[in-house]
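Protein in question kept in full:
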Amino acid sequence: MNLRHATAQASASTEPTETRHATSTRLHGRYLFLARAVWLTLTVFTLCISILSLPDAFRSLHTACTGFACTAASGLLTTGDMQALQKIGLSLDSYASYWMALTIGIALVWLVVGVILAWRKSDDWMALLVALMLITVGATSITDYLLFVSSSTWWIPANVLYMLISLALLYTFALFPNGRPVPRWTVWVPLIYPAALLFYFVLSLILHLPGWSLYRGTLPINAIAWFGCEWVLILAQIYRYFRVSNQVERQQTKWVTFSLIVVLLADFGGAAFANISSVERAGFFFIIINTVGQSLYLALPFGIAIAMMRYRLYDIDVIINRAAVYSLLTAMLVLVYVGLVLLLEFLLRGIISQTNNIAIVVSTLAIYVLFQPLRHRIQRIIDRRFYRSKYDAARIIANFSATLRGEIDLNQLSEHLIAVVQETMQPTHVSLWLRAPERPENYRALHKK
């Protein structure tokens, strides 16, 4: 069969399950000028508060911390931590300089990503909102301590900035990725949290309460209002993803969701590590782990930027697949390694000396042998469980390739081709046209053979 004399044309039409209208977030004229002016004003305000608070932030790292604010993420030290620093030969000035450099570096990354996004899409109000959110969230790494430990007048602009950050975050949750609230009533949800804060501020002025008491757990209004709004918007995003979003919007949501998972894992891991360790017990290792944990927070701005710029959106499927495979693989190999070491030490005890070294060597060799087979096995399981359609499509195409090498009947081949298209692409209609050969005598001669 001469394939050069036979061309196939397939037409497929699919109707979406629901009508989806693209929402334009582009601005023009006076509205564009107003949006840029508001964005620039709020950005400058955020940067001014952050820069002016740097001296107080540096001084706070020299003061012993007490209460709930003494977490690994805050960088604040307890009295025991300060004494431990002196034991490992690190002065308070050195630690404060290191922590400020790390904090400013992370804030600058958020700032740069936000500015680039705003620069590239300065006529898109949704992009400006996300860029403002990135810049303000990055600034919280510098100003958060003002809300928790400071009792000076700095708490007033710090709370204004905190309210701005909250609004930017919640409205990004409510409107991402296309600028349209789904369901429509969710557009009012982000206003609940700042309204609760404003109510508390008025109450604090009447009762003469310190401004930072809202964040020290004296009243549950802060946590209830924040997590209530957050969970409502998360549920709205889940509904949007499965019922409203198109394919591109789902890929954008995947990028942000994956970045949030990385941040949450870093947050939970840092909290767990802080509960079981400290500078006093871990020394420099505590500082290294804390630095790595803080750096993982940068996954969020990069994930959001990729989603908004729509750059290589479909790479997220590969990233999620690889992350799932290697996470399960690492967990299983760790369990196998620890189990083998303990089992071999128990079995070899009393037979030979240095059982620990023998057990470690044998377990390491076993992990080396198991790595590739176990990885391939986990990959196949994940593909079948979570990527079933792609897994089936790849299998069908592989079977068709094997059939193509041995099939010589054009009618049979056409039927196989239509079946493959139906099973892999699942269109509502498939048509196949074969062009007549340019030289009919060649066609007849081909069939005589």
